[in-house]
Write a structure and sequence with these properties.
- The chain is an alpha/beta fold.
- 44% of the residues lie in helices and 15% in strands.
- The protein has 2 domains: 109 residues, Rossmann fold, CATH 3.40.50.10860; 172 residues, NAD(P)-binding Rossmann-like Domain (Rossmann fold, 3-Layer(aba) Sandwich).
- The chain contains 13 helices and 12 strands.
- Helix 5 packs across helix 6 and helix 5 runs parallel beside helix 12.
Length: 355
Amino acid sequence: MDVFSEVGRYGHEQVVFCRDEASGLRAIIAIHSTALGPALGGCRMWPYRDEEEALVDVLRLSQGMTYKCAAMGLDFGGGKSVIIGDPRRDKSEALLRAFGRFVQTLNGRYYTAEDVGMTSADLVHMRKESEYVLGLPGASGDPAPATAYGVYCGIRASLAEAFGDDDPKGRRVAIQGAGQVGRHLARRLVEAGAEVAIADIFPEKAERVAQETGARAVPADEIFEVECDVFAPCALGGVIDDDTVGRLTCRIVAGSANNQLKEPRHGDMLHERGILYAPDFVINGGGVINVSMELAPGGYDRERAFERIAGIGDQLRELFALARREGIPTYRAADRLAEERIGRVTRLHRIHAPR
Protein backbone atom coordinates (compact mmCIF):
# COMPACT_ATOMS: atom_id res chain seq x y z
CA MET A 1 0.00 0.00 0.00
CA ASP A 2 1.17 3.53 -0.85
CA VAL A 3 0.35 5.18 2.49
CA PHE A 4 0.49 8.79 1.26
CA SER A 5 -1.75 7.99 -1.72
CA GLU A 6 -4.25 6.28 0.56
CA VAL A 7 -4.26 9.22 2.99
CA GLY A 8 -4.60 11.65 0.08
CA ARG A 9 -7.53 9.71 -1.35
CA TYR A 10 -9.59 10.54 1.74
CA GLY A 11 -8.26 14.10 2.07
CA HIS A 12 -6.76 13.85 5.55
CA GLU A 13 -4.72 16.55 7.25
CA GLN A 14 -2.65 14.33 9.50
CA VAL A 15 -2.16 10.67 10.39
CA VAL A 16 -0.12 9.68 13.44
CA PHE A 17 1.28 6.19 13.95
CA CYS A 18 1.80 5.39 17.63
CA ARG A 19 4.03 2.62 18.96
CA ASP A 20 5.09 1.81 22.51
CA GLU A 21 7.07 -1.41 22.87
CA ALA A 22 6.79 -1.64 26.65
CA SER A 23 2.96 -1.72 26.68
CA GLY A 24 2.51 -3.35 23.27
CA LEU A 25 0.64 -0.34 21.92
CA ARG A 26 0.15 -0.13 18.15
CA ALA A 27 -2.30 2.63 17.28
CA ILE A 28 -3.20 5.07 14.53
CA ILE A 29 -4.74 8.52 15.04
CA ALA A 30 -6.30 10.06 11.92
CA ILE A 31 -7.28 13.73 11.75
CA HIS A 32 -9.41 14.21 8.66
CA SER A 33 -10.36 17.87 8.98
CA THR A 34 -10.17 20.71 11.48
CA ALA A 35 -12.02 23.17 9.23
CA LEU A 36 -14.89 23.43 11.73
CA GLY A 37 -12.82 23.05 14.88
CA PRO A 38 -10.64 20.50 16.71
CA ALA A 39 -11.11 16.93 15.51
CA LEU A 40 -13.44 14.80 17.62
CA GLY A 41 -13.88 11.05 17.43
CA GLY A 42 -13.68 7.94 19.54
CA CYS A 43 -10.94 5.35 19.98
CA ARG A 44 -11.68 1.85 18.68
CA MET A 45 -9.79 -1.29 19.73
CA TRP A 46 -10.10 -4.20 17.34
CA PRO A 47 -8.04 -7.27 16.30
CA TYR A 48 -7.41 -6.11 12.74
CA ARG A 49 -5.89 -8.64 10.34
CA ASP A 50 -3.00 -6.28 9.60
CA GLU A 51 -1.91 -2.65 9.68
CA GLU A 52 -3.38 -1.97 6.24
CA GLU A 53 -6.88 -2.95 7.37
CA ALA A 54 -6.50 -0.77 10.47
CA LEU A 55 -5.35 2.21 8.42
CA VAL A 56 -8.22 1.99 5.94
CA ASP A 57 -10.70 1.68 8.80
CA VAL A 58 -9.39 4.72 10.71
CA LEU A 59 -9.28 6.80 7.51
CA ARG A 60 -12.89 6.00 6.65
CA LEU A 61 -14.09 6.45 10.22
CA SER A 62 -12.41 9.82 10.67
CA GLN A 63 -13.73 11.08 7.34
CA GLY A 64 -17.20 10.06 8.51
CA MET A 65 -16.70 12.04 11.71
CA THR A 66 -16.04 15.21 9.70
CA TYR A 67 -19.36 14.78 7.93
CA LYS A 68 -21.12 13.75 11.14
CA CYS A 69 -20.00 16.80 13.10
CA ALA A 70 -20.96 19.02 10.17
CA ALA A 71 -24.37 17.40 9.83
CA MET A 72 -25.01 17.73 13.58
CA GLY A 73 -24.19 21.46 13.47
CA LEU A 74 -21.18 21.03 15.78
CA ASP A 75 -18.07 23.19 15.71
CA PHE A 76 -15.76 20.19 15.57
CA GLY A 77 -13.82 18.49 12.84
CA GLY A 78 -13.42 14.81 12.20
CA GLY A 79 -10.91 12.46 13.78
CA LYS A 80 -10.71 8.85 14.91
CA SER A 81 -8.19 6.48 16.42
CA VAL A 82 -7.75 2.72 16.39
CA ILE A 83 -5.70 0.47 18.63
CA ILE A 84 -4.68 -2.82 17.04
CA GLY A 85 -5.42 -5.67 19.43
CA ASP A 86 -8.09 -7.82 21.03
CA PRO A 87 -9.86 -5.74 23.70
CA ARG A 88 -10.75 -8.91 25.57
CA ARG A 89 -7.12 -9.99 25.87
CA ASP A 90 -4.64 -7.22 25.04
CA LYS A 91 -5.99 -4.22 26.93
CA SER A 92 -4.03 -2.97 29.94
CA GLU A 93 -3.66 0.18 32.00
CA ALA A 94 -0.16 0.71 30.59
CA LEU A 95 -1.40 0.44 26.99
CA LEU A 96 -4.28 2.87 27.60
CA ARG A 97 -2.05 5.37 29.36
CA ALA A 98 0.53 5.14 26.58
CA PHE A 99 -2.20 5.93 24.07
CA GLY A 100 -3.31 8.88 26.20
CA ARG A 101 0.23 10.26 26.04
CA PHE A 102 0.14 10.22 22.26
CA VAL A 103 -3.22 12.04 22.28
CA GLN A 104 -1.69 14.70 24.55
CA THR A 105 1.14 15.33 22.08
CA LEU A 106 -1.44 16.63 19.58
CA ASN A 107 -2.16 19.48 22.03
CA GLY A 108 -5.92 19.68 21.44
CA ARG A 109 -6.04 19.07 17.68
CA TYR A 110 -7.83 15.80 18.52
CA TYR A 111 -10.25 14.86 21.31
CA THR A 112 -10.79 11.16 21.87
CA ALA A 113 -13.70 9.28 23.44
CA GLU A 114 -15.22 5.81 23.62
CA ASP A 115 -15.82 3.55 20.62
CA VAL A 116 -16.01 -0.17 19.84
CA GLY A 117 -13.88 -2.23 22.21
CA MET A 118 -13.60 0.57 24.76
CA THR A 119 -15.48 1.52 27.90
CA SER A 120 -15.77 4.71 29.91
CA ALA A 121 -13.60 3.01 32.56
CA ASP A 122 -10.83 2.66 29.95
CA LEU A 123 -11.03 6.39 29.30
CA VAL A 124 -10.18 7.04 32.95
CA HIS A 125 -6.72 5.56 32.32
CA MET A 126 -6.25 7.67 29.17
CA ARG A 127 -7.32 10.77 31.07
CA LYS A 128 -4.43 10.29 33.51
CA GLU A 129 -2.11 11.19 30.63
CA SER A 130 -4.22 13.54 28.49
CA GLU A 131 -6.64 16.40 29.07
CA TYR A 132 -8.21 15.75 25.65
CA VAL A 133 -10.38 12.78 26.66
CA LEU A 134 -14.18 13.04 26.73
CA GLY A 135 -16.95 10.68 27.87
CA LEU A 136 -15.67 10.02 31.36
CA PRO A 137 -17.87 8.66 34.15
CA GLY A 138 -19.49 11.58 35.92
CA ALA A 139 -19.57 13.61 32.71
CA SER A 140 -21.31 12.45 29.54
CA GLY A 141 -20.23 8.86 30.25
CA ASP A 142 -21.28 5.88 28.13
CA PRO A 143 -22.38 7.21 24.70
CA ALA A 144 -24.54 4.17 23.87
CA PRO A 145 -27.84 5.43 25.35
CA ALA A 146 -27.45 8.73 23.49
CA THR A 147 -26.55 7.05 20.20
CA ALA A 148 -29.46 4.63 20.54
CA TYR A 149 -31.89 7.46 21.28
CA GLY A 150 -30.78 9.30 18.15
CA VAL A 151 -31.21 6.14 16.07
CA TYR A 152 -34.66 5.62 17.57
CA CYS A 153 -35.66 9.19 16.61
CA GLY A 154 -34.20 8.56 13.16
CA ILE A 155 -36.15 5.34 12.72
CA ARG A 156 -39.36 7.19 13.53
CA ALA A 157 -38.55 9.83 10.90
CA SER A 158 -37.75 7.06 8.41
CA LEU A 159 -41.03 5.27 9.13
CA ALA A 160 -42.90 8.51 8.48
CA GLU A 161 -41.09 8.94 5.17
CA ALA A 162 -41.62 5.36 4.01
CA PHE A 163 -45.07 4.61 5.42
CA GLY A 164 -46.60 7.98 6.31
CA ASP A 165 -46.74 7.08 10.03
CA ASP A 166 -43.84 7.32 12.49
CA ASP A 167 -45.32 4.97 15.11
CA PRO A 168 -43.07 1.91 15.66
CA LYS A 169 -45.98 -0.09 17.11
CA GLY A 170 -46.48 -3.26 15.09
CA ARG A 171 -43.44 -2.59 12.90
CA ARG A 172 -40.79 -5.29 12.53
CA VAL A 173 -37.17 -4.31 13.14
CA ALA A 174 -34.10 -6.51 12.63
CA ILE A 175 -31.07 -5.32 14.61
CA GLN A 176 -27.61 -6.52 13.62
CA GLY A 177 -25.34 -6.18 16.64
CA ALA A 178 -26.18 -6.77 20.30
CA GLY A 179 -23.64 -4.42 21.79
CA GLN A 180 -24.53 -1.51 24.03
CA VAL A 181 -26.23 0.53 21.30
CA GLY A 182 -28.13 -2.47 19.96
CA ARG A 183 -29.30 -3.34 23.46
CA HIS A 184 -30.58 0.17 24.23
CA LEU A 185 -32.22 0.45 20.80
CA ALA A 186 -33.95 -2.92 21.20
CA ARG A 187 -35.35 -1.86 24.56
CA ARG A 188 -36.74 1.41 23.20
CA LEU A 189 -38.32 -0.27 20.19
CA VAL A 190 -39.89 -3.11 22.17
CA GLU A 191 -41.29 -0.61 24.67
CA ALA A 192 -42.79 1.29 21.73
CA GLY A 193 -44.57 -1.86 20.54
CA ALA A 194 -42.24 -2.97 17.74
CA GLU A 195 -41.42 -6.61 17.02
CA VAL A 196 -37.64 -6.87 17.27
CA ALA A 197 -35.24 -9.56 16.07
CA ILE A 198 -31.58 -9.25 17.08
CA ALA A 199 -28.39 -11.05 16.10
CA ASP A 200 -24.70 -10.87 16.95
CA ILE A 201 -21.50 -12.69 15.98
CA PHE A 202 -21.41 -13.67 19.66
CA PRO A 203 -24.76 -15.52 20.01
CA GLU A 204 -24.73 -15.27 23.80
CA LYS A 205 -24.90 -11.48 23.55
CA ALA A 206 -28.00 -11.63 21.35
CA GLU A 207 -29.63 -14.14 23.71
CA ARG A 208 -28.88 -11.90 26.69
CA VAL A 209 -30.40 -8.83 25.02
CA ALA A 210 -33.43 -10.88 23.96
CA GLN A 211 -34.01 -11.99 27.54
CA GLU A 212 -33.57 -8.45 28.88
CA THR A 213 -35.78 -6.67 26.36
CA GLY A 214 -38.30 -9.13 24.95
CA ALA A 215 -36.69 -9.17 21.51
CA ARG A 216 -36.16 -12.41 19.55
CA ALA A 217 -32.61 -13.69 19.04
CA VAL A 218 -31.71 -15.08 15.60
CA PRO A 219 -28.45 -16.52 14.18
CA ALA A 220 -26.04 -13.88 12.88
CA ASP A 221 -25.98 -15.29 9.34
CA GLU A 222 -29.78 -15.10 9.08
CA ILE A 223 -30.36 -11.48 10.10
CA PHE A 224 -30.29 -10.13 6.53
CA GLU A 225 -33.18 -12.39 5.47
CA VAL A 226 -35.44 -11.64 8.46
CA GLU A 227 -38.76 -10.29 7.17
CA CYS A 228 -38.86 -6.76 8.50
CA ASP A 229 -39.77 -3.13 7.88
CA VAL A 230 -36.45 -1.79 9.22
CA PHE A 231 -32.99 -3.30 9.09
CA ALA A 232 -30.80 -1.65 11.74
CA PRO A 233 -27.03 -2.26 11.37
CA CYS A 234 -25.57 -1.65 14.83
CA ALA A 235 -22.23 -3.45 14.59
CA LEU A 236 -19.22 -2.80 12.35
CA GLY A 237 -19.27 -1.04 8.98
CA GLY A 238 -19.36 -2.26 5.40
CA VAL A 239 -22.38 -4.52 5.92
CA ILE A 240 -24.28 -3.30 2.86
CA ASP A 241 -22.35 -4.87 -0.01
CA ASP A 242 -22.90 -6.72 -3.29
CA ASP A 243 -24.14 -9.79 -1.46
CA THR A 244 -26.25 -8.38 1.36
CA VAL A 245 -28.03 -5.63 -0.59
CA GLY A 246 -29.94 -8.29 -2.51
CA ARG A 247 -30.79 -10.31 0.60
CA LEU A 248 -32.56 -7.50 2.42
CA THR A 249 -36.34 -7.78 2.78
CA CYS A 250 -36.78 -4.40 4.47
CA ARG A 251 -38.18 -1.06 3.33
CA ILE A 252 -35.72 0.95 5.48
CA VAL A 253 -32.06 0.69 6.48
CA ALA A 254 -31.50 2.74 9.64
CA GLY A 255 -28.92 1.87 12.29
CA SER A 256 -26.00 3.05 14.38
CA ALA A 257 -23.02 1.47 12.60
CA ASN A 258 -20.50 3.74 10.89
CA ASN A 259 -19.76 3.38 7.16
CA GLN A 260 -22.63 0.99 6.57
CA LEU A 261 -22.17 1.14 2.80
CA LYS A 262 -19.21 -0.94 1.63
CA GLU A 263 -18.89 1.48 -1.29
CA PRO A 264 -20.97 4.50 -2.35
CA ARG A 265 -22.51 2.52 -5.21
CA HIS A 266 -24.26 0.34 -2.64
CA GLY A 267 -26.25 3.42 -1.66
CA ASP A 268 -27.29 3.68 -5.29
CA MET A 269 -28.31 0.02 -5.24
CA LEU A 270 -30.51 0.57 -2.17
CA HIS A 271 -32.08 3.56 -3.93
CA GLU A 272 -32.78 1.48 -7.05
CA ARG A 273 -34.43 -1.21 -4.93
CA GLY A 274 -36.70 1.36 -3.30
CA ILE A 275 -35.11 0.90 0.12
CA LEU A 276 -34.91 4.10 2.15
CA TYR A 277 -31.45 4.59 3.64
CA ALA A 278 -31.00 6.80 6.69
CA PRO A 279 -27.36 7.91 6.18
CA ASP A 280 -25.24 6.62 9.03
CA PHE A 281 -23.38 9.81 9.91
CA VAL A 282 -26.71 11.57 10.43
CA ILE A 283 -28.77 8.96 12.25
CA ASN A 284 -25.94 7.87 14.57
CA GLY A 285 -24.94 11.39 15.61
CA GLY A 286 -26.42 11.14 19.11
CA GLY A 287 -23.17 9.96 20.66
CA VAL A 288 -21.04 12.78 19.30
CA ILE A 289 -23.68 15.37 20.25
CA ASN A 290 -23.74 13.96 23.77
CA VAL A 291 -19.97 13.95 24.28
CA SER A 292 -19.49 17.36 22.63
CA MET A 293 -21.77 18.90 25.25
CA GLU A 294 -18.97 18.43 27.78
CA LEU A 295 -17.23 21.37 26.07
CA ALA A 296 -20.35 23.55 25.90
CA PRO A 297 -20.60 26.71 28.04
CA GLY A 298 -21.73 25.70 31.49
CA GLY A 299 -20.56 22.11 31.06
CA TYR A 300 -22.45 18.90 30.40
CA ASP A 301 -26.21 18.84 30.86
CA ARG A 302 -27.88 15.52 30.00
CA GLU A 303 -31.36 16.96 29.49
CA ARG A 304 -30.05 19.62 27.12
CA ALA A 305 -27.98 16.99 25.26
CA PHE A 306 -30.98 14.69 24.70
CA GLU A 307 -33.14 17.59 23.57
CA ARG A 308 -30.58 18.30 20.87
CA ILE A 309 -30.31 14.61 19.94
CA ALA A 310 -34.07 14.51 19.36
CA GLY A 311 -33.45 16.93 16.47
CA ILE A 312 -31.86 14.10 14.46
CA GLY A 313 -35.37 13.18 13.34
CA ASP A 314 -35.89 16.67 11.93
CA GLN A 315 -32.50 16.58 10.19
CA LEU A 316 -33.44 13.33 8.48
CA ARG A 317 -36.79 14.75 7.38
CA GLU A 318 -34.96 17.66 5.76
CA LEU A 319 -32.53 15.27 4.11
CA PHE A 320 -35.29 12.98 2.81
CA ALA A 321 -37.13 15.99 1.38
CA LEU A 322 -33.99 17.12 -0.47
CA ALA A 323 -33.43 13.63 -1.87
CA ARG A 324 -37.06 13.50 -3.03
CA ARG A 325 -36.90 16.92 -4.71
CA GLU A 326 -33.64 16.19 -6.46
CA GLY A 327 -34.37 12.56 -7.25
CA ILE A 328 -31.07 11.47 -5.72
CA PRO A 329 -30.11 8.74 -3.22
CA THR A 330 -30.26 9.85 0.40
CA TYR A 331 -26.55 9.31 0.98
CA ARG A 332 -25.79 11.88 -1.71
CA ALA A 333 -28.21 14.34 -0.11
CA ALA A 334 -26.49 13.84 3.25
CA ASP A 335 -23.05 14.46 1.75
CA ARG A 336 -24.31 17.64 0.08
CA LEU A 337 -25.80 19.07 3.27
CA ALA A 338 -22.64 18.35 5.28
CA GLU A 339 -20.30 19.72 2.59
CA GLU A 340 -22.39 22.89 2.26
CA ARG A 341 -22.03 23.61 5.99
CA ILE A 342 -18.28 22.92 5.93
CA GLY A 343 -17.98 25.31 2.97
CA ARG A 344 -20.00 28.07 4.66
CA VAL A 345 -18.02 27.95 7.89
CA THR A 346 -14.66 27.58 6.14
CA ARG A 347 -15.35 30.73 4.13
CA LEU A 348 -15.83 32.63 7.41
CA HIS A 349 -12.31 31.67 8.45
CA ARG A 350 -10.90 34.04 5.85
CA ILE A 351 -11.95 36.85 8.22
CA HIS A 352 -9.19 37.38 10.77
CA ALA A 353 -10.59 37.51 14.31
CA PRO A 354 -7.87 37.93 16.99
CA ARG A 355 -8.41 35.79 20.08
